[in-house]
Design brief:
The protein has 236 residues and is mainly alpha-helical.
C-alpha cells in the first residue's frame, strides 16, 4: 500500500497517487511555491567577494562578507592579530661600540669588540710578564685584577715602609728560597681574590707566615689592628 508523501498515511482513494487527500496536495503545493520563491529571490542576489579568501559567493543574508565558517574563523584570528600585534624583537647592543650584537642577552659584546678585548688582554699580560713572575701574572689573569701598577716588589715596599711586617710586626729578611715564615713578601690589604688591586695603596709588606695563614679570607687591615691590640695588652 502506498503512503502519503505529506502525512505518511495510507492512500485509500483509487484516484490518488502521491497524497491521501486534496488538503495534503494543497499544502505541498504551497510549500513548493514558497520554496521556489525563496530560491529565485536568493538567485537574484548579486555575487559578493569574500573578504578572507577573495572567492565569489552568493550571500544568504544582505551584508554577509564571509563565505563559510572556516573563513570566518580565519578572519577573526587575523583581526585579533591586527588589534594586538606582537611586541617588537629586543635588539641587544654592544657595550663598547653600540652596534647590534646579533646574539642573545648573555652576549654583551659583538664579535669584533670581543676579539679586540681578548687581544688587548693578551697584550697587557704579556707586558706584565716582563716584570712580574709568571705565577703572579697568572693570578692577575685568574682573578681579573682591574688595576696592576708596575714596580711593586718586596724591595720597594721595604724602602717605603721598612722591614717590619705590617701584620705581626716582626722584622723580615730577604727571601732565600727556603720558604721561611720570616721572609719578606708582598701582601694585599684587600686580597686579589676579593677584587683588590695590585696598587701602591693596596700593597704592603708582610712576612710569609702572615701572608700564607691569612690567604684571602679577611681584611689585612682589620687583622693588623687586632694583632697590635693583642701585643699592647700583652705588654701591660
Amino acid at each position: 500500500m502506498e503512503l502519503c508523501l505529506r502525512c505518511k498515511a495510507p492512500i485509500t482513494s483509487p484516484w490518488a497517487v502521491t497524497h491521501c487527500s486534496p488538503r495534503c496536495t494543497a499544502l505541498d503545493a504551497s510549500e513548493a511555491a514558497a520554496m521556489s520563491h525563496l530560491v529565485s529571490k536568493w538567485l537574484r542576489r548579486p555575487l559578493t567577494r569574500c573578504v578572507h579568501c577573495l572567492q565569489l559567493f552568493r550571500p544568504r543574508n544582505l551584508g554577509d562578507l564571509i563565505c563559510c565558517r572556516a573563513c570566518g574563523k580565519g578572519f577573526r584570528a587575523w583581526a585579533r592579530a591586527i588589534e594586538n600585534p606582537p611586541p617588537p624583537p629586543v635588539v641587544h647592543t654592544c657595550a663598547d661600540c653600540g652596534e647590534p650584537t646579533g646574539k642573545d642577552g648573555r652576549a654583551k659584546l659583538c664579535t669584533a669588540c670581543s676579539a679586540a678585548r681578548v687581544r688587548a688582554s693578551k697584550r697587557r699580560y704579556r707586558q706584565l710578564g716582563k716584570q712580574y713572575k709568571p705565577r703572579l701574572v697568572a693570578k692577575f689573569q685568574r682573578y681579573g685584577t682591574p688595576v696592576v701598577e708596575m714596580g711593586i716588589t718586596w724591595r720597594t715596599l721595604v724602602e717605603r715602609d721598612g722591614p717590619e711586617c705590617t701584620m705581626c710586626g716582626r722584622t723580615t729578611h730577604p727571601p732565600d728560597g727556603s720558604n721561611d715564615p720570616g721572609e719578606a713578601t708582598v701582601g694585599h690589604r684587600i686580597a686579589l681574590a676579593q677584587g683588590g688591586n695590585h696598587s701602591w695603596q693596596n700593597c704592603h709588606l708582610e712576612c710569609r707566615g702572615c701572608n700564607v695563614n691569612r690567604r684571602s679570607f679577611m681584611d689585612a687591615t682589620a687583622i693588623a689592628q687586632v694583632r697590635r691590640t693583642e701585643q699592647a695588652l700583652q705588654g701591660l
